[in-house]
């Protein structure tokens, strides 16, 4: 069956589970930045995090025949990525955290972390352009999304605190932050792709 990047996850997952490498390639492209950002919360070195992210996708591909669709694909992938990161830390004699990162916080846009191990002039230029793109993307968000994201990402407020500040339910706060992150992620994707590909080439 021919697949395309526009196909829904269930179609891509079904085809990838049957060995369709192109279908899985589309899933990787769709979720690679979320997975890398998530693993970056556990492993601060960007090169190491990229290696672990690739390992997580390999594990996911091998486990696809066992995916039954009881949860969203990214929720399932999130669990694999977290376990892969923890196992990596333990295998190197480092203590893994006892609590997992909230899946709602898994997508973050810390360009300094993403490029932390790069210190060449070219890398610095990429970092500057990425940071500018992040600031521009956040500035262009609707006010309710921008405020919610700023309170969460820059000021470190809890969802309950943001709920009180913005006078709206916690569920609304989570929705706004998710939409804000998704919008920013889409806008900075062209700046992130080069970074991920460099890690794959090592």
TrEMBL record:
Keywords: DNA-binding, Sigma factor, Transcription, Transcription regulation. It comes from the Bacteria. GO terms for molecular function: DNA binding; sigma factor activity. One of its GO terms (biological process) is DNA-templated transcription initiation. InterPro entries: RNA_pol_sigma-70-like, RNA_pol_sigma-70_dom, RNA_pol_sigma70_ECF_CS, RNA_pol_sigma70_r2, RNA_pol_sigma70_r4_t2, RNA_pol_sigma70_RpoE, RNA_pol_sigma_r2, RNA_pol_sigma_r3/r4-like. It holds the Pfam family Sigma70_r2. The keyword Zinc does not apply. Residues 133-182 form the RNA polymerase sigma factor 70 region 4 type domain. Residues 27-94 form the RNA polymerase sigma-70 region domain. Belongs to the sigma-70 factor family. ECF subfamily. This is RNA polymerase sigma factor. It comes from Litorivicinus lipolyticus. The lineage of its organism: Bacteria, Pseudomonadati, Pseudomonadota, Gammaproteobacteria, Oceanospirillales. The gene is rpoE.
